Amino acid sequence: MSQPVIDLVPAWTLVLGVGVFFYVLLDGFDLGVGILYGFAPDRDSRNLVMNSIAPIWDGNETWLVLGGLALMGAFPLAFAIIIPAVYFPIAIMLLALIFRGVAFEFRYRDAEHRTFWDHAFNYGSAIGAFAQGVVLGAFIQGFQTDGRHFAGGSFDCLTPFTLLTGLALVFGYSLLGAGWLVLKTEGALQDWARALGRRSFAGVLIGIAAVSLWTPLMAPQIAERWFSWPHIVILAPVPIVTALVAYWEWRSLDSRSEAAPFLGAICLFVMSYLGIAISLWPMIVPYKFTLWQAASSPSTQAFLLVGTVFLLPIILMYTGWSYWVFRGKVRGDFGYH
Amino acid sequence: MRMDPLVLSRLQFAWVIGWHFLLPAFTVGLASFIAVLEGLHLVTGREIYFRISTFWIKIFAVSFGMGVVSGIVMPFQIGTNWSRFSDAAADVVAPLLAYEGLTAFFLEAAFLGVLLFGRKLVPPWAHFVAALMVAAGTLFSTFWILSTNSWMQTPSGYEIVDGRFVPKDWVQIVFSPSFPYRLAHTVDAVYITTSFVVVGVAASYLRRGRFVEEARTMLSITLWLLTVLVPLQFLLGDAHGLNTLEHQPAKLAAIEAIWDTHSRVELNLFAIPDEAAETNRFDLAIPDLGSLILTHDPNGTVRGLKDWPADQRPSPVIVPFFGFRIMVGIAVVMLGVVAASLWLRWRGELFDARWFLWCCTLASPLGFVAVLAGWATTEVGRQPWTVYGLLRTADSVSPSLTGFDVAVSLAGYCLVYLVMFPAGLVMMTRIIRRGLAEEATEPEPIESGRPALPVRALPSTEARRRP
């Protein structure tokens, strides 16, 4: 491009970061609901659990497409290296999401195979979440590249570290799901959600601790980022605030508050996300290419940014409206089935 | 035999997009149909539109859900299996796909929840708006995805810098030369596909004497619609063909299995193209008609496949050749159905002629076959390129993949799709069998959490209007 242009990379970093985070939160809680679904005591509670997300899961999953396409549009080099590098986790995630997505309708329509579709929903959610965790782990772990291509093998992304991040995300999503269910249910079902929330929380705590210790040991750049002077002082609030949020989440799962467990879980995700972002900044293909090196042409970034800035607030508005329509406790069917 | 990641990746892409395409081919039209029914119900207050709409919304829910989950697969395929294409073309292509997400997917997803579950939670006009927004979303989606495909077929508005496509003029990129024709042709095709499904379902109800009033309304509306859409498709298809002749002559030569460039081209009705010998076997042709159809001039010259080196010709030629003939053959059958409906309507026997109702039922899946045949024609006809004439399919595949990798993932996609799609079909058939009276056989649904306002708790506007 010949004309001088404003650097749009920071704007796109923000859009992509927020978009992916929205996906993690939104589909995170409904995948989490799917994971907890397998532990629901009886059919009535399963119906309620599923109905609490039936009208909104589709919109939540749309953020995944947006995240993928925003990466492709704004940082195509990262898309072209990362996505083939996590070939199998992505394929498994997509197949798992198919099973879980169709289960919403099929479970109701296909009574004689209801158990099968119950499992499809439950395992689909759990496997999808696990695969996303593996993708996250592979991202932190970094990729072998040759010029502008991924040069490793399709199984490089399966390591003890990525299995750990996979499990950690399953617990993380379960915690979000439990928070959502506390918000949307009452009585015995709510107590059940709180109990599962406490177990998920224990898993999340172990996961965060293990990943936080493992990453600096694995990547010297990350150790340098956190522990060198004066970073160790400037960044100290991150682990401290995370610990405070964790304490608050633990307390609120035990209290009678209905919104706090969900809010606490969201805050834990914010802090973990922030931690990863600080560790890897300014890399988008960790340890190989920065956001600026992987960026698409200024014309591409500008063309897409104009529409995004205009459309995202509208999307948030009508998505908010659809959540508003289905507000309150879920008690039974919504009147469609 | 060594497994080739390129061949397997192409197979995998064809497999996942072929199945996926069947769903928008149905739901784009159905969303519009539902919006029209909801609108008619809102304006006229007639209960019959409400019943028909409620019925089709159930079918829509099943098919749309399948469309969403099989659609999420698609952008990731471009990354997992076609990373070199992504690296080379993302600057141009990705914003178009991202705009599909921004303008269409969120709109559909947010309002779908209200359309499916919100009938009793929002006022009737808001429910209609939800139906309208879902329909608009499906059309926006069609716009962007075909814009993307058209750019790959007839690239324009770009420049090549260091082997990568860089945008120069966004208007030319979004509205590439084949886009208006492809968009019109495809939208008409999916509307026709949906209409034939509705006609088929209505006809089978009439044959059995079930839901007669609703079935008559459905049959009559959609047959009128087809009376416009099917003849229109011949005009649009012809225009699209002229456009292909201009911009992708090699594809057209493959479609018609023309090997030598000449004027007064014959029209091959049937042939077995033999690529090794560069000729056709068993051909049955009508003299001069090819030129007349392709160039609108009996003396028109059409370039043959031998004009291009063998490695720049679409292969196998047999796919576009027969794909096109299947598509056009089905269009002729559809035209016959429309003609018969006009004749029967004039004689006042539209709802009673059993042979015609049988024809309608049998014709109901034809649109899907035609859509797939047309898709195979245009996509295989575009080979061996992903970006026509500029980027080869062989240079687009992810370099890291082994044949084993792709074979495993392809097996996974085959397995899952072969469970999901038949299951979905069974479920939709079940809804159709139960028919429009399903409400009565099901327990009264419970209201959602908060106490419903008395007005909103009423089942429909009609009930409210009655004093």
Plain-language structure description:
The complex is a heterodimer of chains A (337) and B (467). Chain A has 337 residues and is mainly α. Chain A has helices spanning 9-37, 43-51, 57-74, 76-85, 87-109, 114-141, 160-184, 187-218, 220-227, 231-234, 237-254, 260-280, 291-294, 298-325, and strands at 145-146, 149-150, 283-285, 289-290. In chain A, the strands form two sheets. Chain A has a two-stranded antiparallel ribbon with strand order 1-2. In chain A, strand 3 and strand 4 (289-290) form a beta hairpin. The radius of gyration of chain A is 20 Å and the shape is globular. Chain A starts with 8 loop residues before the first helix and ends in a 12-residue tail after the last helix. The model of chain A has no long low-confidence stretch (mean pLDDT 90). Chain B is 70% helix and 7% strand. Chain B has helices at 5-44, 47-80, 83-117, 124-153, 170-174, 179-208, 212-247, 249-256, 289-295, 318-347, 354-363, 366-382, 403-434, 438-441, 454-457, 461-465, and strands spanning 158-161, 164-167, 262-263, 267-274, 279-286, 301-302, 385-387, 391-392. Chain B is globular and about 65 Å long. The interface between A and B is large, with 77 and 79 residues.
